[in-house]
Amino acid sequence: MNTSNITIETDNLLIRSITMDYKEHIYREFTTEIATYLYPKPPEKIEHTVRFIESSMKENQAGSNFQAVVLRKETEEFLGCAAIHNIHTTSPELGIWLKKASHGKGYGREAVTALKEWADKNLDYEHLLYPVTRENYPSRSIPESLGGKIVKEYEETNMSGNVLHILEYWIYPPVA
């Protein structure tokens, strides 16, 4: 399934397949502070962001991922990035990051809920993975709001060299 031309609309958001149009926003907003609890590290140069977007667009075209930008519906202001990785498997992985100015407004929950609803309609999966750092309480509330259950705990060293204490939530499809 090619995911390079998808837009998901919610009450407040547009979740749109990533393009190079957002390279400056991603480069500027994916900061050290935002990346604290995430696996990737912030880009040191705009070229790193360009490579990330090029790779994401290829993965979208190949149908292995749905990498998207999250925009405020009313203004199309860039809020962050969201994804469903490994969409061809029985356990795709959800992920999201939002710029600092967008924290605490419910956008993360709204975006991930929309991704789950899209997955329910378009993917054949056993469960969605939602790994989150134990200390990141606001992000932990997202899978919990979707009925997610902690199934695994492990440590992972991120690209910045920090050890993350991961809780892996599993979120199940609706019962038919």
Give the termini separation: 23 Å
Which term fits the overall shape? globular
Report helical residue fraction.
Answer: 25-40%
Largest pleated sheet: 5 strands, antiparallel
Q: Helix/strand/pairing class, anyone? A: alpha+beta
> pLDDT under 50 segments (min length 5)?
none
Note the run of SSEs as H and E. EEHHEEEHEHEE
The average pLDDT value, as a whole number, equals: 96
Q: Please report the first level of CATH classification, the CATH class of the domain at 7-126.
A: Alpha Beta
Sheet-strand content, in percent, reads 25-35%
What is the count of DSSP helices, taking H or I runs of 4+ residues?
A: 4
Global Rg: 15 Å
CATH topology-level name of the domain at 7-126: Aminopeptidase
- What is the CATH-assigned architecture of the domain at 7-126? 3-Layer(aba) Sandwich
Strand order of the largest sheet: 1-2-3-4-5
